[in-house]
Amino acid sequence: MKKGVMRPGHVQIRVLDMDEAVKHYKDLLGLIEMDRDDQGRVYLKAWTEVDKFSVVLREADEPGMDFMGFKCLSEEVVDQLRGELAAFGCEIEDVPEDELKDCGRRVRFIAPTGHSFEIYATKKQTGKWGVGNHNPEAWPRGLEGMKATRFDHCLLYGPNLDETLNLFRDVLGFDLAEQVMAPDGKRVAQFLTVSTKAHDIAFIHHEEPGKFHHASFFLETWQDVLKAADLLSMTDTSIDIGPTRHGLTHGQTIYFFDPSGNRNEVFAGGDYHYPDHEPVTWDAEELGKAIFYHDRALNERFMTVLT
Amino acid sequence: MGESYQITEQCSGQRFPCKAGQSVLKAMEQQGLECVPVGCRGGGCGLCKVTVREGDYECGKMSRVHAPPEALAQGEVLACRIYPLSDLIIECRPRQSAAGHANEYTTTKAMR
User: Fold this and answer.
1) CB contact, 8 Å: B65 with chain A?
2) ipTM value of the model?
3) Between chain B's N and C termini, which has fewer beta carbons within 10 Å?
4) What is the structure's pLDDT at B1?
5) Chain B residue whose CA is closest to A264
6) Mapped to the 3 state alphabet, what secondary structure does chain A carry?
7) Which pLDDT score, from 0 to 100, does residue B111 have?
């Protein structure tokens, strides 16, 4: 949070069929529907999040990610960073207040990987769902499916990782927590954090810009990951891989697809990062183990299936 | 019991049954075959693109990027989102053909 960027705040995901998507994100992942707007977008959140929404679904004829937003400490921070983003050379768009319901103005910029990101400081706070702030109970009753606790991070595929690292580190105050290095010294994957989490945003090198690999949601325990896998089988949902453990970040994980082919992850555990930590480095030759710690081999799908 | 159709993948010569209402890709996976690559299974990633050479089928929703209308008209579809209405002959991952010719044996009945 060196520059006042706090956390991943939202992601807008394109889906082919809204009804199927809402069923997936609500009934299976366990997100809570919070609102809809006149564009037909659906707003959802995970139960521990204090802001009104973190996932926005938009029906479109091509799946993928529209943008990911980071919440900042204050409007002053947004103003300051807007100037620094422009000086860095980013294409910037000012998105007015309430373009997303109950969200303040956002400053949107395109990263060198081709992805759209936003920073903002104001969003309606509805508090954690089903539990208060005062003598709160441990968890609310009535959660569905995997009972996802928070939207955690995205992994995105695109080119120009070095420039993108410069942007996130120097302008937005992220740290490089983990990286994968090719024998020629080229960084082919970078996991960045703006908190003590192992990652708040991650990128893997890919020639085609702007591709979406997955949106990830946090669960409490390995047992919850196993039960998530049970639910995927119960609902005949497309699984990519898992349950397993990552080498990178060491999280316990399972990957699957929403009904439009967007990849989701739910995971538990994993490493932490402080600003004085050296980046963790994996060699590209060990990429199989870095990504799937037990199989120690990549499945082709993980590297090539994107939206 | 619902009807079952025979799917033939031309490049590998592999054949497998597909129940009415079942996607061609799912039917292939159930038989343990790998003649069509499996991606997201949701019409989003384009990995399971095939060309239907012969037969009738319904289409589910597919990403317009991987199955644009002009490709659909030529039977270029995603195997995870087609549901046979007759026996089908499919061809996996056709080379980019310069002169794409419409296939008179193929009709798309409906979008579901």
Assistant:
1) yes
2) 0.89
3) N
4) 56
5) B40
6) CCCCEEEEEEEEEEECCHHHHHHHHHHHCCCEEEEECCCCCEEEECCCCCECCCEEEEECCCCEEEEEEEEECCHHHHHHHHHHHHHHCCCEEEECCCCCCCECCEEEEECCCCCEEEEECCECECCCCCCCCCCCCCCCCCCCCCCCCEEEEEEEEECCHHHHHHHHHHHCCCEEEEEEECCCCCEEEEEEECCCECCCEEEEECCCCCEEEEEEEECCCHHHHHHHHHHHHHCCCCEEEEEEECCCCCCEEEEEECCCCCEEEEEECCCECCCCCCCEEEEHHHHHHHHCCCCCCCCHHHHHCCC
7) 47
